[in-house]
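Collaborator request, handled under Task 6.
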Amino acid sequence: MYDCSVQHASLTYKFTGKERDSESGLDNFGARYNSSSMGRFMSPDPITVTPGRIADPQQLNLYSYVKNNPLAFTDPTGMIIDTSDLRSTRKTPRRSGRRVKRWLERSFSGRQPEFGNKGNRSAMPRALRSSSFTPISNSRSRICQCHLIQAQSSKCCLYNRRMDHHTVAAVSITGICFSVLGSLYLAYDLLGGQHGPLRLLTRAVTYSVVFGIGYGLGLGLFFGLAAGIATGVTLAIEFNRAARGLDHYSLLWEALFAAIRSFAFGAGLYRILGLRFGVAFAILITVGQVFAYSRGMRPATDYGASRRPRLTRRRFWGTVIRTVGYIATALICSAFIRHVDHPWSFALRVGLVTGIVTGVGATVNPYIEYYADNLPERWLGAFGIGLILCGFVLQSIQYWLALFDVRVT
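Structure tokens returned to the collaborator:
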């Protein structure tokens, strides 16, 4: 009588007695699937490093099947090679094998080599308590150590490279902004020429870079980014009005500009000292700047465009008063809002950084104003092309990260 179950078993169980999937043609080895036609596993070995693989670097390939030698070895579980028929390792001395075992104990456990005692055998890693450990020669052990170190270092370099997704998004958005600004500079004539908004944009970009770099070097990247952009944009608006020979804005508008700059400072300090400190600092600085505006101390005071930087007496004393005011504000917020570990040191840092950057900005102000009003049109076009290229480079970073397998977290 014909037995159909025997025929079905012969069709299902194929290579080394493993069950073959009828749809994919892969053999089920328990831990993973193997392709008998390719001689490779479809997934890496879940057991990455064992004493047997240290002794035989040929096993470090996590996708190969039994070291590409299926006539001599088998892999019953899909994880460990069956070396019961391997007799060549029995000729090597046991003493060198014990040395390698002690080195492996220190490497895997991170403890002292007290694992060699029988009483601590239960604390050993499972791989070290395996019976598959085979002794090897002393020279060969050093070679295996080198292979292990190189494999671990290359794996760390490959898989530990990562970048925060907020950083990638910020870089891409910055690139888009650069491309938009560059296109505006290329459309110089369409936007009104010399009387269009590009002079204002030139001032805003220049002052943002100058103040952003200064604040960033003294108080951190985020502080420099927030305070630099707010200071650059508001100063550009005020200087652009002074360059056209018009009177200053009303006190209400000047209070708005002061509030924008002050709350940008508060946002920068929020990352360092918290929300309450940032808000209190911003409010006090706004009050101080509005009081200075009411007394005739404005950024456009003693305005003049010149090829040579200069610092007038009124601007110098305005810088000194601003430095003292920021130091006092930091001390007040530290005393009543949130205690800082070293209040005087922090207050001096905030005041001196603000004063130095303000003094440098006031000194180079005539130079910036001169070239903002007298920059040749062809230079504006070249500047626009440069901004567009920078924008393309920044926007392409996300694709370079994918090309080099950098993980975005």
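The cover message to the collaborator said: "Residues 343-374 form the longest helix (32 residues). Residues 99 and 403 are 43 Å apart (CA to CA). Please let us know whether this matches your experimental observations."
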